[in-house]
Amino acid sequence: MKLILKHIAFLGLALVVLAACNTDKLDYPDAYKVADGIPVVKSIRYANTDTYITQAYMNETVCLLGDNLRSVTQLWFNDQKATLNTSYITDNTLLVSVPKNYPKKRTDKIYLITKNEADTVKYDFVVLPPLPNVASMSNEWAAVGEEVTIYGDYFIDDTSSPVVISFPGADVPHADMTFDGSSSVTFKVPAGALPGYVSVKTMSGTSRSKFMYKDSRNILFDWDGSRGGHAIGQGWRNGSKVHRTPGSDPFPAIDGNYICFQGKEVGPGASDVWDEDNLSFNYWPTPGDPLKGELSLRPEFARLIEDYGIGGLQIKFEALVNTPWTNVGLQLVFTSNADVTMAAATNAYFGNVSIARGIWEPWVSAGGSFDTAGKWITVSIPLSDFNKKPNGTASESTLKADSLTGLSFFLWYGTSSGTKCTPTIAIDNIRVVPIG
User: Fold this and answer.
1) I want to staple 163 with a disulfide (CB 3.0 to 4.6 A). Which of 34, 41, 157, 337 is the partner?
2) What value does the mean pLDDT take over residues 138-143?
3) What angle do CA 91, 97, 102 make, to 5 degrees?
4) Band of the pLDDT at 9, cuts 50, 70, 90?
5) Annotation: CATH topology of 133-213
6) Given this chain, do its domains 40-128 and 219-434 carry the same CATH topology?
7) Is the pLDDT reported for residue 274 higher than 90?
8) Angstrom distances, CA of residue 348 to CA of 353, 386, 426
């Protein structure tokens, strides 16, 4: 019996080997075969609808309709090669995704190439970039006439459809725009620009910015009360020692009064930096006080927390770094009533590793030294990034709604040790707003 089974097994193996050696002689009637001749494109439609089109966005799937489309071995949109899948090619239909890279040279044509690159058929078709993504602005509180940069993607400035940038009340003259590829554009804020969202129009359509020009929503501290924020903090370091009025410093104010951390040389590590008077401000709430109570109970802040949650919010402020910043981080610490109030005054939370915080230290990513070249910039940090211990390592804690009653900024510690420096960091219009 064992001998018979061995013979059967050997016979089966021999048949498998024989089949493997003769696959080139087997006939598969349904196998894909490249056709001879010239392809003909009669029309193009979306892959999932019967809508016929003459243009499509990058990365959209389209269906070519025609004759002899199995003769196509390469397909190009302008100078970008598409990926062909023979499973989606028949004599009369060809499904293909428009390449996701924008062409370096636009011809507004599709090129269908046959085998051996013997013939090329052209067909008129326009590839559109996606709608512009208007992500951020270098300084949301820039004055009229001041140069700013908008960052994002797909700022495609085409001669047939020039980019249009619009503020409420005014458009940016196209001649003033300077493009850095398709990811940023620099210009001066036009005369007549009013607060609000900025829109960018390209050949693909119009998109609204994720930010607001001169955003005055939910300003917690404006240092003079002009924008609905606190004119001063509360606590042992309420900001009075770092408070400035326009003209106090050799650089311009951005929007009335502000605070400025300066005057102290800071060295590497946690022990050589501590100077609360010159490098910090506190806001410790007085629970129940309608004017000096919890930040998170301010009506607008409470509504934003309810509508967006912690993950949908970010802290923003304008900053000017006027001398090289090469060491320590700016710690941003929201506190709860359990951490500190005016009645239970303490600064122990500064070093409390169980209180998650955000840390701004742009000198690290800037290669060891950072300044803003005499200009104010807008800083944005998602509240979801308030997830660090004082030394920048990951915290086991996260922010919750009841963690937002107080707020402190102070220069101390951080993720990296740099070189000694005497930074000058001015700050204004601290606010918490939606991310998008």
Assistant:
1) 157
2) 98
3) 135
4) very low
5) Immunoglobulin-like (2.60.40)
6) no
7) no
8) 10, 18, 25
Q: Could you tell me if 137 and 378 are in contact, meaning their C-beta atoms sit under 8 angstroms apart? A: yes
Residue type, 62: V
Q: What is the full DSSP assignment across 95-145?
A: EEEPPSSPPSS---EEEEEEGGG--EEEEE-EEEPPPPEEEEES-TTPPTT
Which tokens in the block code for residue 325? 């910043």
Q: Rg for the chain (alpha carbons), in Å?
A: 31
Task: Please give the Cα distance from 265 to 424 (Å, whole number).
Answer: 10
Polymer length in residues for the chain: 436
99 CA to centre of own chain: 23
Give the whole-angstrom CA distance, residue 398 versus residue 336. 12
What is the distance between the alpha carbons of residues 161 and 271, in angstroms, rounded to a whole number?
58
pLDDT digits (tens, 9 = 90+) for 144-153: 999 999 999 9
- Residue 297 backbone dihedrals phi, psi, to 5 degrees: -95, 0
Q: What is the DSSP letter of 34?
A: P
pLDDT score recorded for residue 273? 67
The strand pairing partners of 426, in sequence order, are 260, 320
Pick one of 1.10.1740, 3.50.4, 2.60.120, 2.60.40 as the CATH number of 219-434. Answer: 2.60.120
Condensed to tens digits (0 to 9), the pLDDT of residues 47-77 reads 988 999 999 999 999 999 999 999 999 999 9
Report the candidate in 400, 412, 166, 432 with the shortest Cα–Cα distance to residue 275.
Answer: 412
